[in-house]
Amino acid sequence: MINNRPKLIPRRLARAVAVTPALLVLAAVTPALAVPPEQWVEADPVSPLGYLLVLLLIPGALFVVISLLVSLGPSGKDGSGYQPGLAWRHEPEWFGGPRDGVEKAEQTQPRALEGAEGGASGRW
Asked: How buried is 80 (Cβ within 10 angstroms: 0-12 exposed, 13-18 middle, 19+ buried)?
């Protein structure tokens, strides 16, 4: 018979050390025992329907509206969005590039790597 007793004590100690931070956090978030000032006005009670409206119905309605707007967007109507593997069919864009446009930048850049291919099968 094999004696597992020596291994059992470090495991229990490790479990106790792992659980200690969680227990400390739970102990720290107990409700405050302070009494609110008497000048504070008592809030009106909220009906269960009000809770459902604020917590479920309004966020659900926003989710549905945003989903519909995204699915019916301009690229969803005619399918003219970019499709991987096909050539880009629209005007070239360069965000953060020169204000004169891409054509101006192409004129000022030397074409030293004519015919060279870039990484990931890119063509320059």
From this structure: exposed
